[in-house]
Automatic annotation (TrEMBL):
N-terminal signal peptide: 1-26
Organism of derivation: Ancylobacter vacuolatus
Name assigned to this protein: Tripartite ATP-independent transporter DctP family solute receptor
Coiled coil: none
Keywords, comma-separated and alphabetical: Receptor, Signal
Any Pfam family hit: DctP
Superkingdom, taxonomy of origin: Bacteria
Alphabetized NCBIfam families for the sequence: dctP, TRAP_S1
InterPro entries xrefs: DctP_fam, TRAP_DctP, TRAP_DctP_sf
């Protein structure tokens, strides 16, 4: 009996001498969705963002990326942010005017003179004020990325607004875009992106408008003959986060995400500009007829678009235009 007790005591001392392993801290996974293809600059920048976050957090934070509407169409992702079922999303302005009406201001045609003008405004007071308005919708607005300069693609040549008369043209579900194309004489048809390629191939719609990177990454040369470089709207992508999920993060984690986004935003915009130049040439190589056009008649036809919207503040529009100088 004494021998058993002695052996037990020795075993206990032996175990006490071996330190227990400290349990590994659980990695916080953030699921980020977007609506574009993996060749789009937004997806490429999200990959960069994920790398930066992993490095800065030493593995404490992990960004999982879900491209091409895997988490739903853009409006569904935004609603998911409100519900806390989607952690993070990068979306176009298309569905966002329904959540923050003042956002329609940046969708006005021919508002920005250059990408540099857009960056100055969106990174400045006007852009930050617009991001802050998402807080009342249960969403954290974090950054402005770039979808690109929107231009027309069509089955027939477009040289002037007269060529758009009666043309069935897909737009985003965005009242400002719809109003602008009505002024141009087209018959705008708001449609979620997932339906566009099939609708073009079946003749449900005749045309659509999007940045070069969207046109190329979605192989629209297969269903559209012409691309007319109207560059009528500068299209941002907004980086948004669920307020519910954000509030569960530690202040240190929130800081890491914000700092990583600063670096990722610069990378995203540079990638967008580079790919637009490269892919415009590739579209021509695929057989698409890419044409420059005199935008003056398009500007004149849409000059009064803002006046139809109470949510667009003329003072803010004036401030944006003044920033071009």
């Amino acid at each position: 009996m004494n021998r058993i007790i002695a052996l037990a005591a020795a075993a206990a001392l032996s175990l006490a001498a071996v330190p227990f392993a400290t349990p590994a801290l659980a990695t916080t996974i953030i699921k980020a969705g977007h609506g574009t293809q993996t060749a789009h600059p937004t997806h490429i920048a999200l990959q960069k963002f994920a790398e930066i976050v992993a490095e800065k957090s030493k593995g404490d934070l992990k960004i999982e990326i879900y491209p091409d509407r895997q988490l739903g169409e853009e409006r569904e992702m935004v609603e998911g942010l409100q519900l806390g079922t989607v952690d993070m999303a990068v979306v176009s302005t298309g569905p966002l005017v329904a959540f923050v009406p003042a956002l329609g201001t940046v969708d006005l045609p021919f508002l920005f003179k250059s990408s540099e003008h857009a960056y100055k405004v969106l990174d400045g007071e006007v852009g930050q004020d617009l991001l802050a308005k998402f807080q009342d919708r249960g969403i954290v607005g974090l950054a402005w990325w770039e979808n690109g300069w929107r231009s027309l693609t069509s089955k027939k040549e477009v040289k002037s607004p007269a060529d758009l008369k009666g043309m069935k043209l897909r737009t985003m579900q965005n009242p400002v875009h719809i109003a602008a194309f009505k002024e141009l004489g087209a018959s705008p048809i708001p449609m979620v992106w997932g339906e566009v390629f099939t609708s073009l191939s079946q003749g449900v719609i005749d045309a659509q408008e999007n940045p070069v990177t969207i046109v190329y990454s979605n192989s629209l040369w297969e269903v559209q003959k012409y691309m007319t470089l109207t560059r009528h709207v500068y299209g941002p992508h907004l980086v948004l986060f669920s307020q519910q999920v954000w509030d569960r993060l530690t202040p240190a984690q929130q800081t890491i995400l914000k700092e990583a986004l600063i670096e990722a935003t610069t990378f995203q915009r540079q990638t967008s500009a580079r790919l637009e130049t490269e892919q415009l040439k590739l579209l021509a190589d695929k057989g698409m007829i890419v044409e420059q056009v005199d935008i003056t008649p398009f500007q004149e036809a849409t000059a009064n678009t803002a006046s139809a919207f109470k949510n667009i503040d003329p003072a803010v529009v004036a401030k944006i235009k003044a920033a071009a100088n």
